[in-house]
Structure formats: C-alpha cells, structure tokens
C-alpha cells in the first residue's frame, strides 16, 4: 500500500486547508506509486518530463552534464519534495537534465493533465500549488544570488543554515557540485568551520 498519508499531510500543511474524503480518493486514483533503485533515473536528458513526483522516501539529484563530461548539480531533493524538470513538464519539451535516485526512492507520480484536474477540483491542492510556486521563485532567486555573488565560504554557510540535513544525506562531492565548488575547497571549508 503506497504511503498517501505523507502526500495528504504535506498538501494540508502547505495549503492550510483540509482535504475532503473525495479529494483524497481523487488523489489516490491518479497519483501512481513508483519505486526506483539507487542510481535509477526518474528522468533522462533529452526525454520529455511526463510526470511530476512527490518523494515519499529517499533522495535524488537533478543534474546536467557539460560537453567536457563534468556534472553540474542543480538540485538535491529529499522526502516531501517534488521531482520534475518543470520546464519540460509544463512545456512538453525535451529535458536538459537528468534526475537520478541517490537512495532507493519511493515517489507518487502524476501527469500534467492530472495536475490540472487537481488544481480545478481540489481547493487544498490549488492553494498548495500557489504556495509552492512562490517558494520556488524565492528559492531560485536566492540560489542565483548565492551562485553569482557569494564567496565559497558564504555559500557553504548558507547551505548549513538552510539545508543542514544535506550534510548527512549527500556525499561531499555532490554537495561541492551543488555549491559550484571543488571537493578540495569544500573539504577545507568544512575543516575551518570545525575550528
């Protein structure tokens, strides 16, 4: 039995609204459980992102690979976060990103058409989507500012204050990539912060 309670709790918490039993039945009928093993892809570069996924258990990374073969991590994701390349999902264009499970991953996934139905018929889902949209806009703006104008030390301190769980859940080389640092620089920053 998939864990829909995590999704229901998340929607109600973020929206501030209760889901009716009918709302829950509609969500259970259309959100499909999917399990991925560690290292399996939720999405591969060049494919259209047909699903958005809500993480019930596990973690993932969204990344691209440049022409020199270097990986660039755009996003690290944990439980109660959404997985998708939103540009590809909404515009139905080929994705420029890969989304890979970093641990065994359990998601509840839904299509664009189904999301539109939830937005029309489930007030709590619509309210949640508005809050998430605002939060993503703010988070992306902050992320751009940190990448463009923060020093390496400021980026690391910002990560510790906003996402301390990342340090326990993700390998150091991935955190370095996410911060736009070399692993050696991150190692030095970690040592200095322990002094």
TrEMBL record:
Family annotation (CDD domains): CAP_ED
Highest taxon in the source lineage: Bacteria
Matching Gene3D superfamilies: Jelly Rolls (2.60.120.10)
InterPro entries assigned to the protein according to its UniProt record, in alphabetical order: cNMP-bd_dom, cNMP-bd_dom_sf, RmlC-like_jellyroll
Protein name (Swiss-Prot/TrEMBL): Crp/Fnr family transcriptional regulator
Lineage of origin: Bacteria, Pseudomonadati, Bacteroidota, Sphingobacteriia, Sphingobacteriales
Location of the Cyclic nucleotide-binding domain: 34-120
